[in-house]
Automatic annotation (TrEMBL):
Signal peptide: none annotated. Residues 100-269 form the Lipid/polyisoprenoid-binding YceI-like domain. SUPFAM superfamilies: Carboxypeptidase regulatory domain-like (SSF49464), YceI-like (SSF101874). Belongs to the UPF0312 family. This is YceI family protein. InterPro entries: CarboxyPept-like_regulatory, Lipid/polyisoprenoid-bd_YceI, TTHA0802/YceI-like_sf.
Length: 280
């Protein structure tokens, strides 16, 4: 273990206490909302990570089981004792109340991961966005819309961020927004849904499916508002949006790879006359 890092290990088990191989684990820095690593448990149900000091949220997801979220605090030079995490059977969570729900930006993150050509992964996020969910009495008829300010892209490197905003990539002067509008909700069992819709980026629209895990509805927050949460993921192919990485590579431009993993960690508030919009 590097001297300036710490480590943690989870043993993931199913409802019968048996090792849960192949469960998806996502580790997110609490302060920045940045995904720092992700992977799957080995056949014996183990997941181990070495991380810089800090607080991290660890989400474990497996088909047909309820997601589990744990928080770990990493200290340099310390390997935390192995923790056993049991996944419970998926239950049909109470669906959101019919009506309008608006994203709460301080508790929502729009992130992406791209493979840098010949190097490591690039992690980034968009810091300015707005969105909402119109929940219908029949959930399958509900609609989601998201608008992202393309210029708010950040990867922690100013030179790279300016390049991503340029005409080589997002071309934010000509295409200032990235928009997603759903067309239908498809129930997949347990807490899993697929949101089918249209993603418009760089002047091009394509059909996409967001693999979505519904995390439930609670009263809580600033004034005990009604809130719901979900985690949605999709893989995008950059050439579908006329971002031609091969031609840029031929011109000697160091670029990210042909696919991008998009992730939206959403918390939304129920809109009422008393709380027409999420607080600043």
């Amino acid at each position: 273990m590097p001297p300036d890092a710490g480590a943690f290990g989870f043993e993931i088990v199913d409802p019968m206490g048996q090792p849960m191989g192949g469960a998806e684990v996502t580790v997110t820095a609490v302060e920045s909302h940045r995904v720092v690593t992700r992977g799957t448990t080995d056949p014996n149900g183990y997941f181990i990570a070495t991380l810089p000091p800090g607080s991290y949220s660890v989400m474990t997801v497996a088909e047909g089981l309820s997601p589990a979220r744990e928080t770990v605090d990493i200290t340099a030079g310390v390997a935390l004792p192995q923790t056993r995490v049991g996944l419970a059977p998926a239950r049909r969570l109470e669906l959101p109340t019919a009506g309008t729900w608006l994203f709460d930006p301080p508790h929502t993150a729009v992130r992406f991961i791209a493979k840098h050509v010949g190097m490591a992964h690039v992690h980034g996020r968009f810091t300015r966005f707005q969105g909402g969910i119109r929940v219908a009495p029949d959930m399958a008829d509900s609609q989601v819309s998201v608008r992202i300010d393309a210029a708010s892209i950040t990867t922690g490197n100013n030179t790279r961020d300016n390049h991503l905003r340029s005409a080589d990539f997002l071309d934010v002067e000509r295409y200032p927004y990235i928009d997603f509008t759903s067309t239908r909700f498809a129930y997949r069992g347990g807490s899993r849904w697929t949101l089918h819709g249209t993603l418009t980026m760089h002047g091009t629209s394509r059909s996409v499916g967001l693999d979505t895990t519904y995390l439930g509805m609670v009263n809580g927050g600033y004034d005990q508002e009604l809130r719901c949460a979900a985690l949605a993921k999709a893989e995008l192919h950059r050439e579908d949006y006329t971002l031609n990485w091969r031609s840029m590579l031929a011109r000697g431009i160091a670029v990210v790879g042909p696919t991008i993993q998009l992730e939206m960690d959403v918390q939304a508030m129920y809109r009422t006359h008393d709380t027409p919009t999420p607080p600043e």
